[in-house]
Amino acid sequence: MTVATTWKQMLAGRVREDWAREIDIYETQLELRKKGKIEEKLFAETRLRRGTYGQRYDNGQRHDGQRTQTLPFPSGELTKGPVTMWDAPGMQRIKIPFGKLSADQLDVLSELAEEYSDQILHVTTRQDIQLHFIHIEDTPDIMRRLAAVGITTREACGNAVRNVTACPYSGVCHTESFDVTPYANAITYFLMGHPDTQDFGRKFKIAFSGCKDEPCGLTNFHDAGAIAKTRVVDGELKRGFEYVVGGGLGAVPYPATLFDEFLPEEELFPVTQAICRVFARLGERDNRARARIKFLVKKLGIEEFKRLVLEERSKLRTDERWLSFLSDLHITDEKPLRAAGSLPAAPYPDGFEAWRKTNVRPQSQQGYSTAKVTLPLGDFTPAQGRALADIARRFTGDSMRATVEQNLMYRWVSDADLPAFYAEVARTGLGAAGADGITDVTSCPGTDTCKLGISSSRGLATELHKQLTVLGDTLAPAAQELHIKCSGCSNSCGQHHVADLGFLGVSRNMNGRRVPHFQLVIGGQYKNNAGAYGLAIGAIPSKHVPKAVKTLTDRFVNERQPTETFQAFVQRIGKKQIRKLVDELSIIPTYEQDPSYYSDWGDPREYTIGDLGVGECAGEVVPLVQVGLAGSEREVFEAQLLLDEGNSQGAAERAFSAMVQAAQALTREKNSFLGEGVDEIVREFRSHYYDTKLFFDPFSGGKFAHYFFRAYEHRGEASVSKDAAHQLIEEAQLFVEAAHQCYTRIAGALP
To answer: Which pTM does this prediction carry?
Structure first.
């Protein structure tokens, strides 16, 4: 009798045939790469499409504010040259369509985290699960074990359709038009591996929402967003979607544009397919910084874009899958495990009342509620994962959803079971209240594992959570409802643009050393599917951010008008008032007085961004450069004030002026005879900084310089819309920030 010795053998017959074949192909490509028979560039695209990333690897140490763990290098064969996934552990992203998880799936995920990673499962802002510090040799077995319980990692990354997200309340919500779950489920597998989605210049993200007013779907910053809507047509109630395209966050956020106010449900698949074909054909290929569909929509204009899509739609060969899923929209329905009931009378477990207030919401089905488990930073351990799976088996069945707020939601909890359910969750150590409130801080991986991280977003989020939790019930209800989101760089993976208080990591040169900072972003709106984007108004030393949060929330509570939102409060008092706070907090002690300011949250070492690459020394940089860059920051802020006043034209002019001043400050270091003329400044900046690539860095390349050149080309245009001015201010902020980093690099004195 032959004994199975590999996971492939042990799982034979338990994995879908097509998925098994895909994993076999991937494993073969991995072996060929190890033998040097496939170029790294080609294999990188292969592994990325399977969700396998390289990650930041900091001398074998992981720092996240909670633990520092030494991890071994694998014995890879390709160890010469730059560190790659062959030399150091990486990350595996695991695609969880619309966040739905079963108990068996959670068990397997917990096993994988325990056996292959640093024993942490991480929920992302796109309802995925990530395992960090995995070895690439283990990824085929990881994929097979996932596939055996119905999970694929295919197209979890790469230039493809990423995980389709959806409101976790779909099907149990009081305000939804209808349950979007079956549509999100069906389109996931329709587009996965589809020939029309394999040739994109960049990624493509889709989100579904059951209603327009709430934030649960966040459709406004997606490449394609579908909001459930009904309409009476010829006396019959028809389902459809308010369909939007071209949204996105990133360095410069774009609000999605209305494509169709009512796209009938039967047109959802063919129109989305046609959009994918237009994007693949006309999207940017060479400049990845402008390769998302938002740039194509802006370039063509929505009317021309829609014309091209509908023309493409008319040419498509009919696919039975467009409509077949509509014959059974109940395929994703969930059945309660236990009978509906009423909340029993007290006494309740300690902490239950506070938890029920923030983490429990009644379903549209009487006698049932949803209950959220708050996951600090989106993390939980394998032991906690197995316990959470057992809780599902006891109380709800397979109805868990990962949320975009990086939490885990249970649906179909009988109200009669809520105290017992809470008691079991509390035993796992995850019984904290405050889900989706001010203490539940969202964060991207930041400098912990991301190669692009500049400041420690996770470290900051941990500290904010700790300090705000200590305040507890002393925080006024209005403050408790605020959202805080942190990103380690300008890419907005932490969604800082749509938070009440957003923070994005930057660095500054102060007192002759690098100091971690965060730009404060205010004015964002989380509701209405992320209805408005905030703007950065100034950089705060990382160690002063908690004080800034406390000061701003206190002022909001003390001065707000009845029912006034934080966004409305900011608009009423004006950004000048908040900028004063930023300026007051910008001063820090010298290194000799207090060296803690020169390290980041959760990492005692002296702060550096050397991992991102350091430019050549260009001699001494005089303080006049700092004066000029500070002036450019001021002009960006003044542009925001003009925009708030409704003066879009003036705001755009001031934003461009900020770019010119920053470029001038740098360029005078190369040409002390530089004049004041804009044409000369642009020409000299291009010659000394762009053509020589001195302005480039590993994070952005020359992307931010292109913002400056484009603004120069379009200066003086007769009419500038509010959205265009908003975008230009974002680009000016990024250009000025890049000028700061360029100045620091060419100074040659800092790591």
So the answer is: 0.85
